[in-house]
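User: Please go through the entry that follows and flag anything odd:
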Amino acid sequence: MSVTKRPTIRDVAAEAGVSKSLVSLVFAGETGVSQERRDKVLAAAKKLGFTPNLWARSLSSGSANFVAMIVADLHNPLFTEIADFTRQALLEKGINTVMAAAVISERNGKKVLEASTVNSVLDLRPRSIMLVGGLPDYKALKSVPANVPVVMTTGIATQLPRAITVRSDDREGMRLVVKHLMGLGHKKISYIGAYDEVVSVSRHAAYEKAMVDAGLADQIFFEQCDRTEAGGYAAAKLVLSKPDKPTAIIAFNDIIAIGAQEAIDQEIEAGGIKVALTGYDNVYISALSKVSLTSIEPEKEAIAHKAAELLADNELADAHKGQEFLLLPKLVARESTLTARNN
């Protein structure tokens, strides 16, 4: 079986009748090449199906026009949606991306980010780095050169002071959720979720503040769980087993809420009342008719476009080093609360 050889810069140069160095200049985006010669090179490349090897160019030149993304958890739809929105926004600016999944291990009972995750990205010499989601620790990121901007989306960069943070305002999100549930007649509003890093702690605090501000301090109840559907199911079962059970449950995110939904369905089948349920993040699964979960939309596309703006402009990123951009979220009401309005 014959293998088709990938066309090289030499092949493009021969087809266009120019030097190899001129082809390199064209694909490096140099401005000192005449339009006529540039068009000739691009036409030859198109004819041969040539695309430049971005990584080889990066390693040979010491710089590259691409952004590296480190995603905290590929199983979390919020993170993958934001990563994809950002990828599209950067592509519109002519900038490519490479994505790496965070490698997280457990040592002495604590989760840590493996340095290999960061080192493999730095070896490619990206122009900037985007972190999607919170990480258990940031020691490995201390090795990122000072001239490489770091933009964090959805997480909180307390351990990485020079990083720029772009995320949704949790306090406003929780205020909207509690206001929505109170408007439907709910007062016994419990919260289930993670309490394992800065964002989860911040969102829990936002829930408590929203409840206090609404005059419901005596109704505050929190059941901790991990960030999975199974965790949400187990936490909801415990909350619903209370003698003075809630009429509404707020989940840390949509994944946990979907697990809690099963526990609520079982409660109804056993003769219990319908309990209102809300999530957070408004991932695509939440809108499915069988799920129909009321959730907080953190403005994922706006987060992605702001991140792309900063990642594409090193001078702009440098001017905003260490700053936080908080975007106002909105509530998307669906059947998980609207069909439970009379409880």
The two ends are 69 Å apart (CA to CA).
